[in-house]
Amino acid sequence: MMWEGINQRKFPRVAYKCHIRIFKDGREDDLNTVTENIGVGGICVVLDKQLGLFDNVSLEVFLDDDSKVECSGTVVWVVKNHPKVESDETTYDIGVEFTDMPEGDKAKITQKVEEILASQS
User: Fold this and answer.
1) Which residues of 49-59 are buried (b: 16+ CB within 10 A; e: fewer)?
2) Centroid of chain to Cα 101
3) Model's pTM, two decimal places?
């Protein structure tokens, strides 16, 4: 079932996988993963570690054209994924809203989202 709030977003999101580093509590504890979707307003990632709702994080998002976007973010939703079989580990879908993003980085993400949307039509 798709989250009902998706149509209430201010900025569209597109399915897009790229490498991301998430730093919580300074730069010591970084989490490496890939995005599930991205938009100018934020991202969704799947982690094997839960982050707390409203946690502040620092982000490095590596777009496929070798450019990097750096900004802060706030965890705005967390959904626990229950394992399908006993051997699977529990994962968490984490929604992060971008904050303090420079205009140039917003433009990079906007361009990427528009490219993906254009290729789908």
Assistant:
1) eebeeebebbb
2) 14
3) 0.84
* Residues 56-113 pLDDT 10s: 999 999 998 688 999 999 999 999 988 777 777 889 999 999 998 999 999 999 999 9
Q: Which amino acid is at 77?
A: W
DSSP string, 8-31: G-SS--EE---EEEEEETTTTEEE
Nearest in space to 121 (alpha carbons), one of 23, 7, 12: 12
Mean pLDDT value of segment 2-24? 73
Q: Is the dihedral of CA 22, 23, 24, 29 positive or negative?
A: positive
Tokens representing residue 23 in the block: 């730093």
**Radius of gyration, CA atoms only, the chain:** 14
Question: pLDDT tens, 42-63?
Answer: 999 999 888 999 999 999 999 9
User: Which pair of tokens denotes residue 64?
Assistant: 């496929």
Phi, psi (deg, nearest 5) at residue 103: -55, -35
The answer to whether 74 and 100 are in contact (CB under 8 A) is no
